[in-house]
Amino acid sequence: MSNFGRLDLNLLVTLDVLLMEHNVTRAAERMSLSQPSVSTHLAKLREFFDDPLLLPGPRGMRPTARAEALREPLRLALEVLEQTVSPASPFEAATTNITWRVAATDYGESTALLPAMAQLRQAAPNSRLAVLEMVPARIARQAEMGEIDLAFHTQDCAPPGMRQRVLFKEKYVLVGRIGHPALQTPVTLAQFKQLEHVVVSPNGGGFSGITDQTLEEVGLARRVVLSVPHFLFVKSVIGKTDLVAMLPERLVRDSSDIQIAEPPVVIPGYELAMLWDERSHRDPAHQWLRELIAQSV
Questions:
Q1: Which of 18, 85, 152, 222 is the least crowded, having the fewest Cβ atoms under 10 Å away?
Q2: pTM (2 decimals)?
Q3: How many helices and strands (H and E) does the chain possess?
Q4: Angle at CA of residue 116, ends 115 and 119, nearest 5°
Q5: pLDDT tens, 212-252?
Q6: Tens digits of per-residue pLDDT, 16-27?
Q7: How far apart are alpha carbons 31 and 20 in whole angstroms?
Q8: With helix as H, strand as E and coil as C, how does 225-276 read?
Q9: Quick check: 63 and 19 in contact, CB under 8 A?
Q10: Rounded to whole angstroms, how far apart are CA atoms 220 and 283?
Q11: Is residue 167 a contact partner of residue 248, using CB atoms and an 8 Å limit?
C-alpha cells in the first residue's frame, strides 16, 4: 500500500495508452501531450515497476512480459475507476426497482405519504415503499446507518444535524361525532372543560398534551378520560361515543363522518417536516422521492 501511494494515477493512464499504441508519438497525440512528457511518464513507470515495460522493436515498441500481464487488469481497473468518479446518472423512475424505507406515525402516513402514493405508483411502478414505526429517539441513527431514507416529524423536535424540509403548517381543531349535541353551536370554554376528551400519547399512557399545557398556563384544565397511542383510533372512538378530541386539521378535514368545530382556546400548531441524513442528500433517487412527496401534500 505504501508503494502504491507513491504512484501518480495519471501514469497508469499513460501506460494504458502506450500498451494500446506501442508508440510514444501516437500515445502523445492521443493524450494531447507532448512526446517528451509521455517519455517522462514512461521513465517513471519503469522505475516504479522495476521493468522496462516497452522495448524498441522493428515496428514500434513491444511490451515486456510484465507489461503484458498488466494490460488487461489495468484496463479493467481504469474502467472501474472512471465509472466510479463519473457524475451520477440521472434517476429513471419508470425503470427503477429501488426499495425506499421511511419512518412515520399514522398521522405522517395519512398526511404526507397517502397524498403521494398514486403518483409514486404511476411514476415508479417497479419501486417498493416500506413504512417503519417512527420512534423520535431513533430516527437520526437510523438515517445515518441507512436503515431509513426519510422520517416525518414535527420541525421543532427534529434531531439536530438532520437535513429537513417543512411540508406544511398544521393547526388543531375540536372534533366529535356527527350530531354531537355540544358541537351544534360555538363551544364555550366552560363547555370545553366539561366535555370528555381523548388524547393521543405516542409514547403510551399519557393524559396530557399541548392543549393541556395551554390551559394550564391560564389556570384551567379539561377532562381527559381516554389515552391512545394512534390518531386513527381516535376517529373511530369519537364516531361511536360522545367523546371529543383535539386533532390536527389535515387528519379530519375530509372526513364526512366527523363534525369539526373551532376550539374556544387557541392551541399552538406545528410544522411537519421531512427529515433525512446528509449521506443521501445529493442522491438523485432520494432527491426525486423528496420532491414528489413535497409536491403532493
A1: 85
A2: 0.72
A3: 12, 12
A4: 120
A5: 999 999 999 999 999 998 888 898 899 999 999 999 999 99
A6: 999 999 999 888
A7: 12
A8: EEEECCHHHHHHHHHHCCCEEEEEHHHHCCCCCEEEECCCCCCCCEEEEEEE
A9: yes
A10: 50
A11: no
